[in-house]
Amino acid sequence: MVSISEAYHQIIKNSVSLSSQFVDLNKATSYYLSEDVISPIHMPPFRQSAMDGYALNLHENEQYNLIGEIKAGDSRQIILNPGDAVRIFTGAPVPDSANAVIMQEKVVVDENRLKIESRISPQENIRPIGEQVQLGKIALPKGTLLTPAAIGFLSSLGIARVNITRKPSIAIVSTGNELIAPGELLERGKIYESNITMLYSALNSVNFHDIETFRVKDDYEATLELIDKLMNDYEMVIITGGISVGDYDFVGKALKELKVKELFYKVKQKPGKPLYYGKKGKTTVFGLPGNPAAALSCFYIYVRTCLELISGNKNHHLSEFKASSVNEFVKKGDRPQFLKAIFNGDTVEILEGQSSAMLQTFAIANALVFIPEEVQKINMGDVVEVIPLPV
C-alpha cells in the first residue's frame, strides 16, 4: 500500500506525453500545443485605429481641415499635412502621416472643418504595428491549452494548422455478473450498471472523447482475453471492479499474467483504497474500485492527472483552495479521506452520505474536501483543503 503523495508522484513520474500531430485549427480546441507557435506576421500588421474618430496630423491650432475618410479594410494611403484630419473607423489603417486619433465625441465638425475640444497626445488611440506580437516572436508557447480565445488569436495571425499533442484512445471496462444495462428488467440480485456511463461522462466533461466501452462477466478467461485485446488497441484502459482480492475478482490476476508493470496497488485513502496503476508498452492501465463514488473520486484525483500529463499539460496539478467548514465531521479510521462537499468560495459544506457505494451525494457535490491522516474531526469554522470538481 502506498500513500496518496507516493501514488501521485508515481503518476507524474511515469506519464509521458503522447506523440504530436498537425491538425486544422478549427479542430484543435482543448488540445495542448506540442511546440511554440511563431508569429508569421506583425499583429496588428499596420498602425490601427483603436476607435471611431479622426486621424490627425497634429499642429498648434485647434482647427483642422477634414480631407477624407478611411474605413476598415481600406488600403489606400492618404497624406496628411500638419493641420489635416481624416474620418477614421475602428480597425482601419492609420496613415503614416497621422500621429494621433481623437475619438469622435471630442470634436465638432462643420462641413470640412473640424475643431478638437480636448487635448490629445502624440500616438494616442493608435495601435502600433506588432503591439500584440511581432513577426518571428513566440505567439503562444509549447504547452498552451488551445481555448476558443487562443484559437481566435492564432486565426488572426493567419495560422490554419497547429502541432498539438494527441489525446489517448480510451477503453472503459466494467466487470461483474450482477450488472445489467439501464432499461432492462431488474431481477433479484442484479443492479443497473452505472460506472461506464459515469466515467464516459466524466471523460467528456474534461474534453476526452475517443472512448469505447466494454462489459465482462466475472470469468477469468473472458477477463484475460478482453484486457489483452484492449491493451493492444488502446492507449489507456480503465477497468472498474474486479481489482480486489475476492474469489471472483480476476482483474489483478489477469494483469499479472499479461505482464503489466504494476506501479502501485492500493492507496492509503478513503474512498478508493483498492486502486491499481500500471503500464505495458504504450498503454496505461487503471483499475478502479467497483463502488461508484470511490471510482469517480479516483478518476478525479489520479486518472485525470495522468490524462492531462500525457496530453501535453505539463503544468497540471490539482486545484486546491482553503475554505471554512460550515459543519462538523468526525472521521472514522486513520486513512486520509476525500469527502463530497458543496464549495461556496469562502465556505464549504461537507455532505451527508459519504459511502463509497452512494452516488446521490456525489450528484449534488461540486468539490472534494481532503482530510489528512492526522485529523480526526472537523469542527465548524475549521479551515480545510478543497478540491473543486470539473463542471
Proper CATH architecture of the largest domain: 3-Layer(aba) Sandwich
- Major sheet: size, sense and barrel closure? 6 strands, mixed
Helix content: 10-25%
The poorly predicted ranges are: none
Distance between the termini: 31 Å
Share of residues in strands: 25-35%
Mean pLDDT: 95
Computed over alpha carbons, the radius of gyration is 30 Å
What is the helix tally?
7
Number of strands: 28
Q: What class do helices, strands and sheet pairing give?
A: alpha+beta
- Considering the protein shown, what is the CATH homologous superfamily of the largest domain? MoaB/Mog-like domain
Kindly identify the CATH topology of the largest domain: Molybdenum Cofactor Biosythetic Enzyme, Chain A
Query: What is the total domain count?
Result: 4
CATH class of the largest domain: Alpha Beta
Strand order of the largest sheet: 8-5-7-6-10-9
CA-based shape: elongated
